[in-house]
Amino acid sequence: MRLSRYFLPILRDTPKEAEIVSHRLMLRAGMIRQQSAGIYSWLPLGLRVLNKINAVVREEQNRSGAIEILMPTIQSADLWRESGRYDAYGKEMLRIKDRHERDMLFGPTNEEMVTDIFRSYVKSYKDLPLNLYHIQWKFRDEVRPRFGVMRGREFLMKDAYSFDIDKDAARHAYNRMFTAYLRTFARLGLKAIPMRADTGPIGGDLSHEFIVLASTGESQVFCHKDYLDFETPAIDTDFDSVEGLQGIVDKWTSLYAATEEMHEAPAFEALPAESQLSARGIEVGHIFYFGTKYSEPMGATVAGPDGTPAPVHMGSYGIGPSRLVAALIEAGHDDGGIIWPDEIAPFDIAVLNLKVGDAATDGACEQLYKALLAKGYDALYDDTDTRPGGKFATADLIGVPWQIIVGPKGLAEGKVEIKRRADGERELVSLEAALDRFKGKAA
Ligand code: 5CA
């Protein structure tokens, strides 16, 4: 992408309305624009990051055996009357009437709708287990939308729904998602700790929130420090192995970890003082097992081996990709701006032309830029006529992991500079060496 042809509305001044660093940086880096309280447009840079997060989430959902669908944002109130949640959900639900005066709503979650899909097609235990997920916008009319996309009213959610013949099978489905979540957050470069959690309006009696520790987090959490050193399940984890996954989940739930609602002070205080971690955290994922809470009232039954129909056992599993964009910035930034993990960065490499119009500099930059594109990188070429200082500031602000800085002085000696955004380390190398350094996206 040539910056001169891109749409990157950078703000030089710090927006006053933004209370936390991720919100400030997302506005300054031209990633989002607020349209009304808690409702945002995603500008090109923000959308790139959101899509990259979705790609990781999707890969790990698929790996665990879940199957992607896409359900609508607008739902019929009748479905929610069947489960009894239409009245119970309260003011957070945005209720709408269509032209025929039918009650509709903008979905805050999809348990009812996915249960309706399931009951329409699946009748036998032979078609189980099944886990269907989608990545779709949700609306919750939060009393206090704040911190930008961290707590929005309209936000993106990956929500998966599992269907099983009995409680044991449902436990395995829960463990699959639990394990997939550990892998997903680790791939995003985040340390997310599963904590016993309250189930709120979703219901059920087994639930974990996945919490990223951050001083600006909205939740108060308590856990054993050793979780910070636990190993992530490997890429070749066998998601069909009941014992294997139970082993992973047992390990990751073996030590104390709870959100404020579930906190038991005496148990926590019994830990050695040096192992007690009491901190603020961001909830990036939340998983639930709720048995037959929806399948029973909605008549989602399957026939078991003896032919007797019984309500299917369900769980639901949420991740907030739009919230994750903010969480990643809370976890990765410095005074200069954002520091993205390589896999999530909006661009892989930025080429900074320090003297546009100078034939040698333009030539070297074009050569670099085209070679990087040919190797499959998302390259950003700053070919604008901004001063060098402005280019450095922009590249640092938007957090591209690698910068190749090209100017006439260096080129006179046959050199360009490679800068690593994360630690600021710089290296002077020949143009050929710079090209050779970046071997190809898959390499
Ligand atoms: N149906 C279940 C699981 S699929 C459910 O709705 N769970 S939830 O309420 O816990 O939300 C799932 C995830 O969505 C949360 O862990 C969080 O990452 C994200 N999320 C929830 N509310 C918001 C919000 N207001 N703004 C941004 N992200 C949110």
TrEMBL record:
<dbReference type="GO" id="GO:0005524">
    <property type="term" value="F:ATP binding"/>
</dbReference>
<dbReference type="InterPro" id="IPR033730">
    <property type="entry name" value="ProRS_core_prok"/>
</dbReference>
<dbReference type="InterPro" id="IPR036621">
    <property type="entry name" value="Anticodon-bd_dom_sf"/>
</dbReference>
<feature type="domain" description="Aminoacyl-transfer RNA synthetases class-II family profile">
    <location>
        <begin position="38"/>
        <end position="341"/>
    </location>
</feature>
<keyword id="KW-0030">Aminoacyl-tRNA synthetase</keyword>
<dbReference type="InterPro" id="IPR002314">
    <property type="entry name" value="aa-tRNA-synt_IIb"/>
</dbReference>
<keyword id="KW-0648">Protein biosynthesis</keyword>
<dbReference type="Pfam" id="PF00587">
    <property type="entry name" value="tRNA-synt_2b"/>
</dbReference>
<dbReference type="InterPro" id="IPR044140">
    <property type="entry name" value="ProRS_anticodon_short"/>
</dbReference>
<comment type="function">
    <text>Catalyzes the attachment of proline to tRNA(Pro) in a two-step reaction: proline is first activated by ATP to form Pro-AMP and then transferred to the acceptor end of tRNA(Pro).</text>
</comment>
<protein>
    <recommendedName>
        <fullName>Proline--tRNA ligase</fullName>
        <ecNumber>6.1.1.15</ecNumber>
    </recommendedName>
</protein>
<dbReference type="InterPro" id="IPR045864">
    <property type="entry name" value="aa-tRNA-synth_II/BPL/LPL"/>
</dbReference>
<dbReference type="InterPro" id="IPR002316">
    <property type="entry name" value="Pro-tRNA-ligase_IIa"/>
</dbReference>
<keyword id="KW-0436">Ligase</keyword>
<dbReference type="GO" id="GO:0006433">
    <property type="term" value="P:prolyl-tRNA aminoacylation"/>
</dbReference>
<comment type="similarity">
    <text>Belongs to the class-II aminoacyl-tRNA synthetase family. ProS type 2 subfamily.</text>
</comment>
<dbReference type="GO" id="GO:0005829">
    <property type="term" value="C:cytosol"/>
</dbReference>
<dbReference type="InterPro" id="IPR023716">
    <property type="entry name" value="Prolyl-tRNA_ligase_IIa_type2"/>
</dbReference>
<keyword id="KW-0547">Nucleotide-binding</keyword>
<dbReference type="Pfam" id="PF03129">
    <property type="entry name" value="HGTP_anticodon"/>
</dbReference>
<dbReference type="InterPro" id="IPR004154">
    <property type="entry name" value="Anticodon-bd"/>
</dbReference>
<dbReference type="InterPro" id="IPR050062">
    <property type="entry name" value="Pro-tRNA_synthetase"/>
</dbReference>
<comment type="subunit">
    <text>Homodimer.</text>
</comment>
<dbReference type="InterPro" id="IPR006195">
    <property type="entry name" value="aa-tRNA-synth_II"/>
</dbReference>
<dbReference type="InterPro" id="IPR004500">
    <property type="entry name" value="Pro-tRNA-synth_IIa_bac-type"/>
</dbReference>
<dbReference type="GO" id="GO:0004827">
    <property type="term" value="F:proline-tRNA ligase activity"/>
</dbReference>
<keyword id="KW-0067">ATP-binding</keyword>
<keyword id="KW-0963">Cytoplasm</keyword>
